[in-house]
Amino acid sequence: MASMTEIAAQDYSAKNINVLKGLEAVRKRPAMYIGDIGVRGLHHLINEVVDNSIDEALGGFCDTISVVINMDGSVTVEDNGRGIPVDIHPEEKRSALEVVMTVLHAGGKFDKSSYKVSGGLHGVGVSVVNALSEWLRVEVRREEQIYYQEYRMGDPVSKVAVIGKLKKPETGTRITFMPDKSIFKQTKFKFDTVAERMRELAYLNKTVSIEVRDEIENEQEIFHFKGGIMEFVKYLDASREALHKPVYIEGEKDGTPIEIAFQYNSGFSENICSYVNNINTHEGGTHLIGFKSALTRTFNNYASKNNLIKDSKISLTGDDFREGLTGVISIKVHEPQFEGQTKTKLGNSEIKSAVETLVNEKLAEYLEENPGVGKKIIEKSLRAAEAREAARKARDLARRKNALESFDLPGKLADCSITDPEHCEIFIVEGDSAGGSAKQGRDRRFQAILPLKGKILNVEKAKLTKILENNEIKAIVAAMGAGIGTEFSIDRLRYGRIILMTDADVDGSHIRTLLLTFLYRHMKDLITQGNVYIAQPPLYRLKKGKEEYYAYDDSERDEILKRLKANVISVEEAEIENENEVEAKVKGVTISRYKGLGEMNPEQLWQTTMNPDTRTLLQVTLESAAAADKIFETLMGDEVEPRREFIEKHAKYVRNLDI
Ligand code: 0RA
Q1: From 48, 80, 84, mutation site for ligand 1 pocket: most ligand atoms within 8 A of C-beta
Q2: Which of 140, 370, 378, 534 could disulfide-link to 147, CB 3.0 to 4.6 Å?
Q3: How many whole angstroms from 43 Cα to the centroid of ligand 1?
Q4: CB neighbours of residue 556 within 10 Å
């Protein structure tokens, strides 16, 4: 590579200045490129590099990827793709490798045919990872040589050099980077977070084997699913009873590769995960619409052709065909348009008919060949239609009754005086006594309180008709005013923020889980649109003389004690000695442990948990609908730990919301 040294020094430095400007912008506003600078953004660095390796796999050039969290906290991503080109870039007059690593968006320019994602958070390029790394090292295997370059904060510390020769014609790329501690709030990578995304990618790209290893925690997994999304569907439905083997549809329409797998289970909920270019389209879009209409049309055709509907009064709707349906749609689109609140809704209009046509064709074929499965599905949909009809009658009755009583809102709701939903919030509170404190402590102008008695029922397993009989659920639905299930419409929502306030104990977390499951299943838009929050009451109150402090976890408590110069070790001892005593005195500091919300008086509850200026809320987010659904299953078990993990993974802390 003699030509590399032939670049005029002047030219080189001029280019370099442009590069620095680009990467400086990334360092100045990292969130614009990777979403945020918390754990999410941090893990996005890995995803960004892996996306490039996956692109190589999509082109058929790579079948093995490994992601290693190294002892020093850096991460290595390695693939056996073609290797980033190293020859001199004709316009930039320096190694293409250096261009890819240091110029914003350079990666995609080389390869127009790939399914790179335009816009959104993905596909910003490895140069962004480079810019946000204290250091980054890249090794490329190509043309029987090993090329190497190193960077500091995105800036090359040397030119591309050959550091070894290969005997075999193997190719590939190895990138190791150390996230910059001055940029990220925290730089510790989590094995579970990395593994979750790699598992998903392995399901979506069945030709690739992805290894994830954590050298610090000594954990390792290798994901390789030869059955692709067919196995993904089985995984999603692992805890449910499947009615048949997954239906698998694969093909290409108008240049769009389409892959769909689905199966019906004995449950009642609909769970379709859709992906475009490996990105979860949480908000759906044209591909999902195309799939749904094909499903309705093909099954209806099949049912009438085979005389499977005996009762002529019944007609099957789309909803009926989606009860107990678990499915994955994965398509590849050259220039995807992402729309919606979170830019996860596919907008390309031509995709609807592409998916619809393919599914109509292939599903009809499948049903001809598998009449047993077809019959089971139609029978299940008929039962769904009957239940729907029963529910409609029940609702009509309830409505008429309401009209007579001209009373819509539940009696125990303490409503707020402002009616503009954007400025209102509702606290759903565990227990009447905490509800009482909350009612007294609140700012009644914009805060409504709905106390719940005991547990709401587990909606995972119940039918909608049953669910609507439950008093607590009825109260929630009525208070929110936006309907339920297929009749839910977020535009009618009476409060902009739904805040779940439960005790910090096992029962409290169970109730919170039940509420979350209910909202996830029957008012899903609330979660995808970010309207749901979890209140964070403090665990401890520390009192020294007249001064009062609140701690939201053990480490915060210990920090405050340290500040007050009280002995930290003795806290634990004091607590153990007094087992059931709430108070423990440590060198003049009185620590009270709050067991329940009811132990706080209205003023304390307002100050610590409800006042928008001082409180912390957890916003419930849907990182990945697939993962969430999986975890919701886990959550319904009796163990507390998976629930806590879910909350930690899928909720983010927010402070001082603007009202
Ligand atoms: C630009 C062009 C080509 C490949 C790549 C980039 C590439 C980037 C990364 C990042 C991680 N692994 C990667 N593997 C490849 C095309 C190469 C060619 O035409 O030979």
Answers
A1: 84
A2: 140
A3: 21
A4: 16
